[in-house]
Amino acid sequence: MQVTVDGTAVQVSDGATVLEAAKRAGSWVPTLCFDERQAPFGACRACMVAVDGSAKPVPACTTLCREGMVIDTTDPTARRVATAVVELVLSELPSAPAPHTELAAVAAKLGVEGPRWPGATHPVAHDLRHPYLAFEHELCISCGRCVRACDEVQGTFALTAVGRGFEANVAAGIGSGFLESACVSCGACADTCPTDAITERLLLDGGNNGGPPPDAPRLRRRLSTN
Question: How many structural domains is the chain composed of?
Fold first, then answer.
């Protein structure tokens, strides 16, 4: 079928999403909860775009294309929604995201320099009980990507979403973090995390100061497709 994205006509297959069409057209759409290796989730609402015939912006990652659809990824209302989402996410973090993270990149491209609504932030809470993975809970934005990577791609089911609203976070194990969970140290959660809330301790500690031993296996940086 043919759709038009920002004035460019593109051909997409049946079942393609608006986000896929935008990528085919070379248009940028901000995302936080999306990972192309996982099923679209539509939780963050950063990927809002305008579609002719719709009274309000729609999420690009979960909206299916239809023949003749006209999509505007730069619609002012849609961009205001995306910008507000990122500003709200940043307002809950105790510090700015590291420059190399996806969250920082999305914020920079949207022109967001910091939170618009300063207030309560997540308390610093680090789980360093796993020999290879570190979990900095205060950086979690509840995008769900780590949980879905563990479930959908790895089939391990070691992580789960807990809490609601401001208290939402991710947990592993029962009161023992990754240490006694079903985690197999594949690194899928760290690979997909857009904020470095979960990261390899080799990267966090540089292999020193309490990091993993020198002979620790390198974690895979790509999700398994098996």
Answer: 2
